[in-house]
Amino acid sequence: MRMSRLSLYSLRHPIVQAPMAGGPSTPALAAAVSRAGGLGFLAAGYKTVDQVERELAEVRSLLSADVPYGLNLFAPPGHGTGAAEVSSYADSLREEAQEHGVDLGRPRWDDDQYSEKLDMICEQRIPVVSLTFGCPTPSEVNRLRSSGSAVWVTVTTVGEARAAQRTGADALVVQGVEAGGHRGGFDDAHSGDIGLLALLQLVQGAVNDDLPVVATGGLVTGRGVAAVLACGAAAAQLGTAFTLCPEAGTVPAHRDMISRDDAPTALTRAFTGRTARGIINRFLQDHAEAPSAYPEIHHLTAPLRTAARTRGDAESFHLWAGQAHALAQPLPAADLVVRLATEAREALKIATRETSRQA
User: Fold this and answer.
1) Using only C-alpha atoms, what is the Rg of the chain?
2) Is 122:54 a contact under the CB 8 Å cutoff?
3) Architecture of 8-358 per CATH?
4) CA angle 68, 127, 198 (to 5 degrees)
5) Which residues contact 249 (CB under 8 A, 6 or more apart)?
6) What b/e string do you get for 59-91 counting C-beta neighbours within 10 Å, with b at 16 or more?
7) Residue-wise DSSP of 286-312
8) 150-155 vs 235-238, strand pairing mode
9) How many angstroms separate the CA atoms of 153 and 149, rounded?
10) Which residues contact 350 (CB under 8 A, 6 or more apart)?
11) How confident is the prediction along the chain (359 residues), in pLDDT tens digits per residue?
């Protein structure tokens, strides 16, 4: 077993709360999950360094010194293949922006202050740092580990898993195509489209046996957690399952849509220019041909999305959700962690009994 600053196997419950940038992730949610014996995460994406530092301080104020937590960092995105199409995409949005009295944002490329955030993280002892949208360099991994952080890398393909292993990652977050929100892979043009159980098996067949994997994508119940544990994962990472918790920052219109069992999801670039899974709404359907241009389109549509959230218009902003979102429950985060772990243990016991009986 690979030992790191935080061993996945030291968690009381193998439950990780996915970092959900843009609102749902809050210090209160991360702290509640960690206090309950899981691993709560903050999302550094879309925030300034000062904002991240304030949230880290808040989480620490809610936890005792020996309780772990994590922070997710966006790796610098590549330049999307559709950058030249951003201007025409903006033209297609102008009438809608005028209708709602909103100015479109200025499309631009940036790296979400990656270097500055990395410097800040390395100055603090953060138990786990996970990366999405790319793979850190070996020197960056060494810096993070030297500062006391275990380093997790999100992967969506076998090739990405091998690259993360070579760079020295302490664990892989294996993201199936069922997952809500952005595909976490390295390149939007080649993002993995493999289901979670298949991808888990492929990744584990390709990397060292002592490299732990965290499974994520479409997991909402204890039975789903049990399935990935039985498939060899060290823990399950759940995002949508936590969006209805009172500690989450999910807005009411989004909560209402997640609760519906007649709201299918789809992959789209309409909102940010990067492939992501959300509940199908009018905006997603109207802009199905959005180009691959992240973060340019993210900045372009941000004012439209913010205005729609403020007025509670679920047809006009992103409703990130995994494929099993209808099973999410509005429970306090600590209660949800315990329920998931209890249900998973019971499901594994039942499966073991059935296997023994049939042998």
Assistant:
1) 20
2) no
3) Alpha-Beta Barrel (3.20)
4) 90
5) 23, 24, 25, 26, 29
6) bbebbeeebbbbbbbbbebeebebbebbeebbe
7) HTTT--S-TTHHHHHHHHHHHHHHHHT
8) unpaired
9) 13
10) none
11) 333 467 888 999 999 999 999 989 999 999 999 999 999 999 999 999 999 999 999 999 999 999 999 999 999 998 899 999 999 999 999 999 999 999 999 999 999 999 999 999 999 989 999 999 999 999 999 999 999 999 999 999 999 999 999 999 999 999 999 999 999 999 999 889 999 999 999 999 999 999 999 999 999 999 999 999 999 999 999 999 999 999 999 999 999 999 999 999 999 999 999 999 999 999 999 999 999 999 999 999 999 999 999 999 999 999 999 999 999 999 999 999 999 999 999 999 998 876 666 65
In sequence order, the 6+-apart residues with CB closer than 8 A to the CB of 207 are: 161, 162, 165, 172, 213
Q: How far is CA 100 from CA 158, 290, 305, 311, 340, in A?
A: 44, 21, 11, 10, 42
Distance CA 59, CA 272 (A): 28
Tokens of residue 48, six digits: 């300034």
What tokens does 87 get?
Answer: 């201007």
CB 18 within 8 A of CB 239: yes
Spell out the domain ranges in the chain: 8-358
